[in-house]
Amino acid sequence: MSVDERNQQLKPGSGRGEAPAGLPDVTGPIRAFNAANKSHQELWAQAHQAGDEVRRAGEAVRLADQEADEKHAAHQAIQAVYPRRGAPLARQVVMAGGTVAADAVACWFAAQALGAGQLETLLWAGLFLATLAAGEVALDRYSDRSRKAWGVLAAGLGGFIAGLGVLRFLFLDTVGPVGPVAALVGAALFTVVTAGFALIGYRALRAAETLRAAQARIAARKAGREAKAAAGRLARRKADRDRLVDAYLSRIRACLLERFPSSELPRMVAAVRAHLTGGDGS
Fold first, then answer.
1. Are 99 and 178 part of one and the same domain?
2. pLDDT tens across 40-87, in order?
3. What's the pTM?
4. Is residue 257 in a domain?
5. pLDDT at 3 over 50
6. Containing domain of residue 100, as a range?
7. CB of 218 within 8 A of CB of 234?
């Protein structure tokens, strides 16, 4: 808005130049002060422009807060469906993946019992690890859907882990000089460790939030950051506006003293400030 357009706001009936309720009308003093010097008019226009920016920033904060509240409420509603599954999905998946990776050595020993070359052994070990990972994911998926299917999967995964133990026993008994008893003990220990890691991975997935809840949580967190950023922009806009308003008041105060008694000065200054800020005292 140009200076001339802003000057129209000081004319009677313009609305913006009217005195706020309870404060004196300062339209006349402001018009006289602005007419005395072009710099006064420019400073007045800059203060008004800064006030407009504050109002726009305030509206942006209102919309951002509303969006953040809606996203937070949506996340809470989705999370309420599975209240016990509140752990961050990404963290829990990493934990479950770590338990699978910890079984790599045991799967490698089991794969070596098949008597293939190094590449084939590596492929078998990878297949065993993938099966363990798929078993953990499948157990988590069907834990809330079908107890019968979950029981079948648990039995199948247990049988698979036992089969890995048999392969490890065959490998240790074949290549190791310790004898069948020591090989059996070693295979049993590896089997217990493998089953333990699989259980830990399953429990990690059971505590994880659902994918939909994770997406809602991320959206709510993003909306919260945007609302915080909008509040920061509003604070900066207010600081800029207040600096310009204070500069204008420091110049017009002497003019007000010439026209009004000193006892009226605080009310006149408050009226000028309200005029420049559009009645927004925040």
1. yes
2. 999 999 998 999 999 999 999 999 999 999 999 999 999 998 888 889
3. 0.70
4. yes
5. no
6. 87-208
7. no
| Cβ count within 10 A of residue 117 | 8
Burial pattern 208-221, b for ≥16 Cβ within 10 A else e, equals bbeeebbebbebbe
Asked if 48 and 143 sit in the same domain, the reply is no
> What tokens were used for 219?
């959206």
- The separation between the first and the last C-alpha atoms of the chain, rounded to the nearest angstrom, is 23
pLDDT over threshold 70, residue 185: yes
Other C-beta atoms closer than 10 Å to the C-beta of 194 total 25
Conformation bin of residue 24: beta by default, left when phi > 0, alpha when psi is -120 to 50: beta
Determine, yes or no, domain membership for 14: no
In this structure, are 97 and 57 located in the same domain?
Answer: no
Helix (H) or strand (E) holding 3: helix 3-8
Contact 205, 137 (CB under 8 A): yes
d(CA 46, CA 155): 76
- The helix, strand and coil proportions of the chain, stated in percent and rounded to the nearest 5, come to 80, 0, 20
Q: What tokens appear for 7 in the block? A: 């000057």
CA–CA dist 105, 268 (Å, integer): 83
Cα distance between residue 154 and residue 141, in whole Å? 12
Task: Provide the number of structural domains found in the chain.
Answer: 2
